[in-house]
Amino acid sequence: MSIERITDLCRAFAAARQDVAQEVATAQALIDAIKAKYAPEIATRTAAMAAVYDELHAAIEADPAQFTKRKTLVLFGVKVGFVKGRGRMIWKKSEQVVAAIKRLLPEQQAVLIQTKEVPVKAALNALPAADLRRIGVTIEDAGDQVVIAPQDGDLDKMVAALLGDPATGDDDAPSEEAA
């Protein structure tokens, strides 16, 4: 194969890439136009949805008695009610918990204590609450928490894609002032 043939193929490849780039630019321009047209109304409706969500959350939180028999209900495709919170473990001094594990749970020491001698949260999660209390660990935020989970989760993803994600630094998302 000669350098002339390689040169011709490079020229053809560059031209093909340019064609692809033009199509991508055209598609992106159409996407941007659609976003510009629909994003403000979607943002307005999303704000209205958020206001109703807050009101629904407050109503559920204010009347937990409605969810004593069944902790959750699905109404109009929306799961509402209460779910058990995962909770989080806290302790004042790691040294005290390590000492308590060594004293009270010596057979589980290798699993519950890292070599740098701090409690292992993942392993402590597996312990019963009674053992956690014995070693000085308390669990916070483990009570019932309100859950509102639409069963059509794709809608939220589509809205985020259309409006951009502020968390990723996408500046294409309209500000609240523009909505």
TrEMBL record:
Xref: Pfam families: Phage_Mu_Gam (PF07352)
GO BP field: DNA protection
Single GO MF annotation: double-stranded DNA binding
Domain of life, per lineage: Bacteria
Name this polypeptide is given: Uncharacterized protein
